[in-house]
Design a protein that fits this description.
Helix content is 44%, strand content 12%. The chain is an alpha+beta fold. The strands form 2 sheets. Strands 1, 2, 3, 4, 5, 6 and 7 form a 7-stranded mixed β-sheet that branches. Strand 2 and strand 3 form a beta hairpin. Helix 12 packs parallel to helix 15 and helix 27 packs across helix 28.
């Protein structure tokens, strides 16, 4: 069966947590976590299409228009979605009390883990939304202290009490309380063993809180003050997985919406989680019976879409498009399909494969293709894949004999930039992979690179044209590499949030998937999924993308600082069952560590991957290696977070910290980190040279300031007492001593300008 791995993002407002993992050509600096620009289209509930900027890049064994009869992808291939992510990076952030710049401000975790009852509630109320927002990233060790069921029930009851007297604003900090609950559900979803189970008691408390809030007439105030609490409350419906119970609230929000009054006040953002409630309901047993009992929710959706057709092409057009997604999703139920056909047909007739309404048309075309394809002529969508491709992918360019670009809107300069980046990556890849040519039976000698004009264009057009799920940051369609004439391609898009700079999101990450699949991994993607290999597949793509472009992986460094994962744990990563952080940042760290510290093991594992010996590779990782490197990996993470992953050359072997409490003592094959001295002073070192040693090499690098390296075999080294020195303009110094005398020898780093954060390595 064709398989598509997806990361189902829960909310357009989630760009703060689900930040992109790899930049694109050129290597111009862009924010590590781009926020949504103020004039970006408003997102709504994620459906089969996810919001910008989407995370990561998938690899699949599907090919477009599968003539071989293999199963086509549909939303049924998706896994149930995770809880919603934190409230950051929103347009009009002031409406949510986040200030002009919605920067995440960390809390003191102990302020929450160390409190219970009313003390905990008062603490949550005392902080701002940015602080609570940072708790979505709480570590496993603190997760239970903050979010165990008793804590959550206490906060839910506090929301209920505040809701009874809600005044239409956040004066009682009800938004912070609701966001805290949202964070708890999020953390518990990814760490159920650490947090513990959530039971019926908590769900009942959540219901009481939401019932009280929505029963309060002030929850309908069309004001900026009401926007944040209302949005949080609508989000909590999804958090407690109670879509059926709150269908009347969803209907109310859709019916009450008025673009003239809701949009300026930020009330529009409450529609995002309302549509998420509809999306999530499809995985809840009581949802379909509730919709069948009251199908007017479908009429309300259609009416909402119809009266807001004028929003297409504007700031809030995406909201209408996502509403079409949620309406047409109900076409999958045979008992509802007859009543939905006229609605879907009308929406198709109101839209075209190009121009402002093409997203609406694309949503209908996809739904028809998935659930009523035999009647596509009724809707007029039978030829839509070809029509969408002809109308939109109009630019074709040859980068090299093996790379062809097909694009929606690239000009000559942009095409040249993209080609230069792609063409230059091959040599870098092969130097790292150390392959000996394509794996057996791989005929994927050319690659087609398809570039859409924006993330939304990718999400809609790629889904229609190539019949894939696009709830991701790009897709490599490997096809069946053993078949003659197979055409692999990867799909990506321009990073519209980076404009006027030009970037193609995940360009180098996706191209790595192509090269890796051709030279490192036997067969198609599905073939390799008999054992967990995603630590390598996604981790290596992240590693090559960042290293080739010389871009620091800030997200991975942050994860390293939290010591979030053991190496042996990362070897078990499965894309469909793991968080995006574990897949991408964790994968990057595992791959980088193994390349730097255990290259021979990497070569052994790759030999198995290249032969399709999945069980053999798994045995190497889990039995031969097992937990043997976990302790060393933990120490490596410390050095990575302290600067080694920002200043070192990725993949360059790293030495362990020198042993012993005397920080002046060096040894064979070790490093002293974070060395510092003020101007005119010294950092002294000594080492014991065994008899017969042929060479000593001492190297300094990194940090700030300027230190010069001195060597003296007979005593402490000074500027007026040395045999040789290295005195460059910074801290990059090296001294190599041939045939040193046996016994103690001495080195020093003299501060021409006060320095700090310098690492000193010794090898002999």
């Amino acid at each position: 069966m064709a398989r598509l791995l997806t990361l189902v993002l829960s909310l357009f407002l989630a760009v703060g947590l689900f930040s992109p993992q790899s930049q694109a050509a050129p290597a111009a600096a862009t924010p590590a976590t781009p926020t949504t620009p103020a004039d970006a289209p408003v997102g709504t509930a994620p459906a089969h299409l996810a919001p910008p900027p989407a995370i990561g890049a998938d690899r699949a064994d599907t090919a477009p228009a599968r003539p071989d009869g293999r199963k086509r992808l549909s939303p049924e291939d998706l896994v149930p979605r995770s809880p919603v992510a934190p409230l950051t990076g929103e347009p009009n952030a002031k409406a949510f009390g986040l200030g002009a710049a919605a920067a995440e401000q960390p809390c003191n975790i102990a302020d929450f883990t160390g409190r219970t009852g009313g003390d905990l509630v008062r603490q949550i109320r005392s902080v701002d939304l940015q602080c609570v927002n940072s708790l979505f990233r709480i570590g496993r060790g603190d997760a239970a202290g903050a979010f165990r069921e008793s804590q959550m029930t206490t906060v839910a009851n506090a929301v209920r009490d505040a809701a009874y007297t809600y005044q239409g604003d956040n004066s009682a900090s009800i938004a912070q309380l609701m966001l805290y609950l949202q964070a708890g559900y999020f953390v518990q979803f990814y760490n159920p063993d650490a947090v513990g189970p959530y039971g019926d008691g908590l769900k009942a408390a959540g219901r009481s809180a939401l019932d009280a809030f929505f029963a309060n007439p002030r929850s309908r105030d069309v004001t900026a003050d009401n926007a944040s609490p209302l949005t949080r409350a609508a989000t909590l419906i999804d958090s407690i997985k109670d879509s059926a119970r709150y269908l009347p609230v969803v209907k109310r929000l859709l019916a009450d919406y008025d673009s003239a009054t809701w949009n300026p006040n930020g009330m529009v953002y409450a529609l995002t989680p309302a549509l998420t409630v509809l999306y999530a309901g499809h995985w809840q047993a009581d949802f379909l019976p509730a919709v069948k009992a009251d199908p007017t929710v479908l009429d309300t959706l259609f009416t909402f879409i119809s009266r807001n057709q004028g929003l297409h092409g504007g700031t809030y057009g995406r909201m209408v498009y996502e509403s079409v997604n949620e309406l047409t999703r109900f076409m999958k139920y045979p008992e509802l399909l007859p009543g939905l056909r006229p609605y879907a047909r009308t929406l198709a007739q109101q839209s075209t494969p190009s121009g402002p309404t093409m997203y609406q048309r694309g949503s209908v075309a996809l739904a028809v293709n998935w659930w009523d394809t035999a009647n596509c002529s009724y809707y007029g969508t039978c030829d839509d894949p070809a029509r969408f491709k002809a109308a939109n992918l109009t630019v074709k360019h040859t980068c090299s004999p093996s790379i062809t670009l097909l694009a929606q809107a690239l000009d000559g300069t942009q095409l040249g930039t993209a080609c230069t980046s792609l063409n230059g990556q091959d040599a870098f890849f092969h130097a790292v992979a150390r392959d000996s040519g394509p794996v057996k039976d791989d005929n994927n000698g050319t690659i087609e690179v398809v570039v859409f004009h924006s993330s939304l264009d990718y999400q809609v057009l790629a889904a229609v044209i190539y019949d894939i799920n696009t709830n991701n940051g790009g897709m490599y369609l490997e096809g069946e590499p053993d078949k003659a004439g197979n055409q692999p391609r990867f799909l990506c898009y321009e990073a519209e949030w980076a404009r006027p700079s030009f970037e193609i999101w995940n360009l180098n990450h996706e191209y790595t998937h192509y090269l890796d699949g051709r030279f490192d991994v036997y067969g198609d993607y599905e073939a390799g999924q008999v054992q967990p290999i995603d630590w390598w597949v996604e981790g290596f793509a992240e590693f090559v993308s960042h290293s080739y472009r010389k871009v620091v992986n800030d997200g991975a460094i942050a994860v390293a600082g939290r010591h979030a994962y053991r190496l042996s744990e990362l070897f078990d990563t499965v894309y469909a069952k793991s968080s995006q952080e574990r897949v991408y940042q964790g994968g990057y760290l595992a791959v980088r560590y193994m390349l730097e510290r255990h290259r021979s093991d990497v070569d052994a594992v790759l030999a198995k991957y290249r032969a399709g010996d999945w069980d053999g590779a798994r045995a190497l990782l889990k039995t031969t290696i097992g937990t043997r490197y976990d302790a060393d990996f933990d120490g490596w993470l410390t050095r990575c977070a302290a600067g080694a992953c920002a200043t070192g050359t990725p993949g360059e072997p790293q030495l362990p910290e020198c042993a012993g409490s005397d920080l002046r003592k060096l040894d064979a094959g070790c490093v002293r980190g974070n060395v510092a001295a003020t101007t005119g002073n010294y950092a002294h070192f000594y080492l014991l040279v065994p008899a017969g040693t042929k060479q000593i090499k001492v190297t300094t690098k990194g940090g700030t300031g300027n230190g010069d390296l001195y060597y003296n075999p007979g005593g402490w080294a000074y500027t007026d007492s040395y045999v040789t020195r290295s005195a460059g303009p910074d801290n990059a110094e090296t001294l190599t001593v041939g045939n040193p005398p046996a016994g103690y020898v001495f080195f020093s780093l003299y501060a021409q300008q006060g320095f700090s954060g310098v690492s000193v390595t010794s090898e002999f």
